[in-house]
Amino acid sequence: MSTVRERVARVDLNADLGEEVTDDAGLLAVVTSANLACGYHAGSAEIMRAVCAEAARRGVVVGAQVSYADRANFGRVALEVGYATLREQVADQVGTLAAIAAEEGIAVGYLKPHGALYQRTREDAEQAAAVLDGSGELPVLGMPGELIAAARAAGRRTWSEGFPDRAYERTETGERLRPRDRPGAVLTEESEIVGQALRLAGRVESLCLHGDSPGAVAHAQAVRRALEADGWVLAGLRDSSTG
What we know:
By secondary structure, the chain is of the alpha/beta class. The chain has one domain: Glycoside hydrolase/deacetylase (TIM Barrel, Alpha-Beta Barrel). It is built from nine helices and ten strands.
């Protein structure tokens, strides 16, 4: 069985930005793709504009990080939202970011759900369909599950990702991230994060570091140095069909 490294010579390093608790400028100096909060779990038009402007200057690809409309819980609580409502909420988020990005001279490069919506769309076909149908033809970044499968079936570009700063556990339906309310869910030791990044790099196309974690910029810098020292070329998520 071939690995991602055998198929491609590059890996992406992404992080969550625009969440009002992150060092956006610091992370944009390190990452190659930025998952930008679209205002539903965090962020604002002003923050989106600032991140897009800096991303354009640095050549960082910007993705729409869509979420449940739940700023109080930072989008980390699963909500029972119907298909039509969720589709419109996703369309609103993507449309808002796309308009701001265009004004800063760039295009939104991909879609990635945030928090509880990320996990829910791995298992819930209806919610996955709502996210896809509300996001036009954007490529999709995520872990295996309903959303990625549906995107591929629709002919949309997908990228697989892993999390150097999160603990994994096995379930009956496959591997998942350990829930944040369980001990050890978030890794904080730099050596452990770097080690996991190097292990994941041969299995996935993109590595995600959480921007709201303590020491996020330092961890991102350490991961990037280690990847480059190991021979990886870091490059953002660009769909070849759109240039």
